[in-house]
Input
Amino acid sequence: MNSTVASEYSSEVHSTPIEHRFNPYSDNGGTVLGIAGEDFAVLAGDTRQVVGYSINSRYEPKIFNVGDDIVMTANGFAADGAALIDKFKNQLKWYKFDHNGKKLSIKSAARYIQHLLYGKRFFPYYVSTLIAGLDEEGKGAVYSYDPVGSYEKEQCRAGGAAASLIMPFLDNQVNFKNQYVPGTDGKEKRPLRYLSLDEVLQLVKDAFSSATERHIQVGDGLEIFIVTKEGVRVEYYPLKRD
Amino acid sequence: MPGLSFDNYQRNHFLTTRGYGQPTATSTGTTIVGCKFKGGVVIAADTRATAGPIVADKNCEKLHRLAPKIWCAGAGTAADTEMVTQLIASNLELHSLHQNSQPRVITALTMLKQHLFKYQGHLGAYLIVAGVDPTGAHLLSVQAHGSTDIGQYQSLGSGSLAAMAVLESHWVPDMSKEDAMKLCADAIESGIWNDLGSGSNVDLCVMEVGKDAELYRNHLTPNVRSEKARSYKFARGTTAVLRESIRDILDVEETVITFGSASVDAMEVDA
Amino acid sequence: MNGISVDINHLKKGEVNLGTSIMAVKFKDGVILGADSRTTTGSYIANRVTDKLTQIHDTIYCCRSGSAADTQAVADMVKYYLQMYASQLPFDEKPQTKIAANIFQEICYNNKDNLTAGIICAGYDKVNKGTVYSIPIGGSIHQQEYAIAGSGSTFVYGWCNENFKPEMEREECVDFIKTALAEAIKWDGSSGGVIRMVVLTEAGVERLVYYPEDYQK
Output
């Protein structure tokens, strides 16, 4: 029986030092997701903005049509996100002035955003960035970034507060991960196929209503930007407000 | 050995210095309120339990019974509110048996504050204690460090500011039972909508002098989940069976007994 | 543990603080205690109608400042000790104020490493009439004509020193306390609410409450 161990509890330091340095970053919650289809792409995000346990706004859009049929979001620290998007929109305007109104391809936009992010390598934009649109062949395209500009073209990606809740759901439902053809004893993966826009929209709604159930920073409203060859369209659906 | 075990204290302290953090307890970032009315008292709570930003339980119970007519609402560390409440409930019953009288709210409060003070705030229990006893209806609160307050209306938890805003603007003296119930429910709802640590439903408990306490579990349910857009039924066999192993964990023996004319003797009990 | 380097003024994280204005004044017929009614946790007012004037015996009261939990625990202990002590006295005798004050002092001194408690103990007893004792944070004891304490008291040290008179009439003493506390509340952010008073005399206990519209000019 040695239920107690001798120790000098009284000599231990109890107080944690108080940091007096200004912290330039904060976390504004929210979550976003992008899915690329065969001839369309969607970028969706909730419209709640928070800090700590408080709600700043129940409708603060964070997905933007930045022009040239490209939609963009930068989720995380809202001020950095807005700054990044403003900077990109501004640069796109100057690109058009300088190049006789030439349309910027999503491929070029993606590479340019990498440079914007890496430009602040040692004082990063505290955001996970996503852009969506159509590529040169008219196929849906989604690009995702880390805070300092590492990027990749993907079929689908979730970002922000509830990314860890949504991403596994997307892996399973969009890329059919962990699904096998019945009767093949796990030898044959379920074959991939392009999802229709209706199916994608259903997945997006369910992803967000589920994330709202289990993540306190997600809720209030869902705004979905849809890019097709006809252009950009926006849809809005209410989410739970608790 | 009774009481808390500190066996792992030094090991955990060592682990902390090596970069392994302490495990985080489920905190009921909560809204709880209480309000007196003419001839009784009512307490209420939301039903969300959180672990960081994740909702750990969408419909947990934060209203605890200390005695049949003394209830308390708990905020803070879920485990602490639960355990401290059970301990005091137990001691209160022994005490009332010993004294041969109904337990009193002030007794419950004194036991709680002395227990919490002993632990110097390390038990993160913030409670609103209410009830009726031979001396009338009472509404009190205890904080983790052992301090107590008295009031006609109270709120505690992360949503206490949102709830107090409602209480301060709508409370009037000598309310009816129905008005007090409405006020408490409204205060909790304010926490549910405006505080991220609070959510889901409203639980309510009414204690009236000369009557049994009434618990209204899920008095309001303003956050029912909407129907999903898609069905997520998987075709049978989608998940591969990699290995199958069936074991007998008991041997089944069968013995057949035939009941013939010979067995009649054996069945005679009152011969 | 090195007693000199111990920070006894720190509050534990999230602790309820009585950032307070309290005082007790001797007057002709006995003693009057006064206090504001604000309790804070950080910048939030946890209670705006707190009663910081705590009864220790029939005509012995104390004003509490510092940690709410610590001062309540200490007051509960003193109340208990004094009950035990009073039960041993002859039938018609009551404990003297100095007994209560010295129990406070003993507890505050012996547990100084673990307590954040600034207490004013005052009362009326037949032998000494009105008496005031101040027991500040380290656990010392000081008998005084009047005592002021808490964060708000710093603003009225000069005023009280200039305007205090021994053997005041009751109304004059009430005005003295009311004016001092009104001024303390005005300048100290962690004091506020109503002004509570307790008048302790031969006649017994009388409670007074003054609302902001009454004391703010």
Remarks:
- The radius of gyration of chain A is 22 Å.
